[in-house]
Amino acid sequence: MSEAPRTAFEIITLFPAAVEAFAGAGLLGKAIERGLVAVHTTSPRDFATDRWRTVDDAPFGGGAGMVLKPEPVVAALEHVVATRGPCHRILLTPSAPRFDQRVAERLATLPRIALVCGRYEGIDDRVREHYVDECLSLGDFVLGGGEVAALAIVEAVSRLAEGVLHNPESVAGDSFAAGDHGPLLEFPQYTRPAVFREHAVPEVLLSGDHAAVAAWRLAASLRRTWALRPELRAVSPWPPALPISLGVGADAIALAPALAELARCHALAGLVVLGGDEDDALAWTRATGGRVPIAAMRDLAAVRRRLKRSEAGAPWLVALAAAGEVPAAAASAAELHDRLTTCAGRRGAAVLLLPGLAGAQDAADAIFAPAAGAHEGSPAAPQRARVSEHDPTLANPPAIVDPSRPAALAVVELALTRLRGTPQAPPTHAGPTKPP
Ligand SMILES: C[S@@+](CC[C@H](N)C(=O)[O-])C[C@H]1O[C@@H](n2cnc3c(N)ncnc32)[C@H](O)[C@@H]1O
């Protein structure tokens, strides 16, 4: 192919051979062979001016280690610009914004990119200050040098270049791709054999029913994303708000910021402060920074009356468990499961989840059990293990339940995640903007 490559990378590194060996392998190597991508390496050592080809020196002010001198690095950069043309110059350093898929997409639009790799304690900071256009970090950890970071960027950017992947659809379906549902983690992938030892793949994948497979994959992606990478939720354009309000005891105000965040992330209708009056509503509004609608209600009878008056007249009321004078609205964990799933697709249904209450683990078991109620009466066990056991798509989660948060909040979060991850008919109404 005689055309110019879609992206050309200039790697400034003290270890050109290591970079070239990696770049020559796999799909990247093939893309280079086909002229779709170019990777050139240049060593600052070739621009050192003394007889020992010195590239480092001790830090001014003292301290451990050595620092890469500015002259050979800048001379190497100027050389590649003079010989092959201007580049977008990126310095690799842990002290920088993190590289991610959005940055990869932006870089994929540029014709020439220089990646400057440090070693030792890093590069004299005047290079950052005056000779590069941007700094990027691979993540919050310290590598021995910038080469691995540079190669990660080269791979992530190259696979977005047209023609590099045989099937361009695989980019659209990747984790973090900006799809209809926002950046999601990918669904679990399986291949033959259908049963490996005693582990079978999910049956739906063998059904040949494309719509069912697509629905299962979307549900699994949503569940994984919400459970494993909660921060991605905030940037996802989720479907319209579910008609769910979160019921909280008026005295749980210390949890207000966490509850508000939960309600906001899950696009809930708002918080209902139970056993509270107008003063409580004001205090909660202040404590949540006004981020979610708050309604105060004296007791559950008031809630029920309000729900009965609400648009569709379907007064669903589900509590995770009872506490104090708040009666349990679901007789059993199985009933709770049924109610949650029924409510999710039901027009005008309102679900009230009461966090902070005893018995929440049973409820979580019901929500996450493949068969409702299958785990009722099972002995107490750590929440994380029990929950993940029930949902193979969340197997081996690093942190499904954030231990720093009150357990019941985590349970509510899991319940909401489950609802979100369950494919359902979109609500036929716009969704309430106020709590019931
Ligand atoms: C040992 S590190 C220097 C770390 C530096 N003393 C610090 O604490 O930030 C040497 C070089 O590795 C590269 N490097 C290390 N960690 C990195 C990361 N997370 N992202 C990008 N580059 C990294 C940088 O080019 C850096 O100059």
Description:
The chain is extended. It is 35% helix and 13% strand. The chain contains 15 helices and 15 strands. The chain has 436 residues and is of the alpha/beta class. Residues 236-240, 311-337, 340-351, 354-405 and 422-436 have low confidence and may be disordered. The strands form five sheets. A five-stranded parallel sheet has the order 2-1-6-5-7, with helices on both faces. Strands 14-13-12-15 form a four-stranded parallel sheet. It has a two-stranded antiparallel ribbon with strand order 3-4. It has three domains: 7-158, SPOUT methyltransferase, trefoil knot domain (Alpha/beta knot, 3-Layer(aba) Sandwich), CATH 3.40.1280; 178-230, Trp Operon Repressor, Chain A; 241-421, 3-Layer(aba) Sandwich (Alpha/beta knot), CATH 3.40.1280. It binds S-adenosylmethionine (SAM).
